[in-house]
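tokens incoming
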């Protein structure tokens, strides 16, 4: 089951990076908090 939570987000992040999109994908462990108030660098 862990594979279903880990592999798809990493595959998505890899595809976004490969396409040179102006989007930053952050993959976090399930249940982790993400601070969206910090500006991306």
């Amino acid at each position: 089951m862990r594979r279903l939570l880990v592999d798809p987000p990493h595959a998505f992040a890899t595809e976004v990076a490969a396409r040179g999109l102006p989007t930053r994908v952050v993959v976090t462990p399930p249940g982790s908090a993400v601070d969206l108030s910090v500006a991306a660098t």
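note: The mean pLDDT is 83.
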